[in-house]
Design a protein that fits this description.
With 214 residues, this protein is of the alpha/beta class. The protein is 29% helix and 26% strand. The chain has one domain: Rossmann fold (3-Layer(aba) Sandwich), CATH 3.40.50. It has seven helices and nine strands, in the order αβαβαβαβαβαββαββ. A nine-stranded mixed β-sheet has the order 3-2-1-4-5-7-6-9-8, sandwiched between helices. Helix 5 (107-118) packs parallel to helix 6. The longest helix is centred in the middle third of the chain and has 12 residues, at 107-118.
């Protein structure tokens, strides 16, 4: 059973063909199990990574339920990501980046800009889920600026404005150097008909309606 709020873990596993022993960077980890995008990856598929969360109350739960990963209680906007990656011997090609921060106070776009300046020139992520929350805020034009950054770095948007309960709030990406683009392109093509019109985002796709193909 997938545990991500919008089945982001399903997206990652399908794109990466249920890869074992992957590596992730999770920004905005929140609860280590409930609506968590990496718990299934770690507990069932042997993944590990770095979990960054601002709220210290989760740390004991991380230690109990996420023993294979590194836990950082820190403001994601204040981390030196190049230094963090080098100190933890992170591979140049990682499997998943989650950005799930607070859009309305600038945490999301400021952190993405730090990632762009500090590690995107050297490190790549096979899959990315990025929360822009266009349905309720547009701080710093987060949605458009983030798309420009990912495009500049060579990422391809597979699903844009993914919604949960009709609220478009995330874009999902892949890096073509690290995934099977034949599969990705077929996935994009076969899901075109599942988008619907939305008064804020123009169009949106319900995560429940995303269909993965053989």
């Amino acid at each position: 059973m997938y545990l991500g709020q919008a089945y982001q873990d399903c997206f990652v596993l399908n794109i990466l063909k249920h890869k074992k022993n992957g590596v992730f960077l999770e920004l905005g980890s929140h609860h280590p199990i409930v609506c968590n995008n990496t718990y299934l990856l770690e507990s069932k598929y042997g993944w590990n990574g770095i979990m960054v969360e601002y709220t210290p109350k989760y740390l004991p739960l991380y230690k109990e339920h996420r023993p294979n990963s590194i836990h950082m209680i820190e403001d994601a906007r204040k981390i030196d990501y190049r230094d963090m990656f080098e100190k933890n011997n992170m591979p140049l090609c990682l499997d998943y980046l989650q950005v799930d921060l607070e859009v309305d106070n600038g945490s999301t776009i400021h952190t993405l800009e730090k990632l762009d300046n500090e590690i995107f020139d050297k490190y790549k992520f096979a899959t990315i889920t990025f929360e822009h929350d266009i349905y309720h805020t547009n701080y710093g034009n987060t949605r458009i600026v983030s798309r420009d950054i990912f495009k500049k770095r060579g990422y391809v948007c597979v699903f844009e404005d993914v919604n949960n309960s009709n609220n478009p709030y995330e874009d999902w990406y892949v890096h073509p150097d690290l995934v099977d683009m034949d599969y990705v392109n077929r996935l994009i093509y076969h899901n075109r008909e599942h988008y619907v019109q939305h008064n804020i985002s123009g169009k949106t796709i319900d995560f429940n309606n995303i269909k993965y193909i053989e």
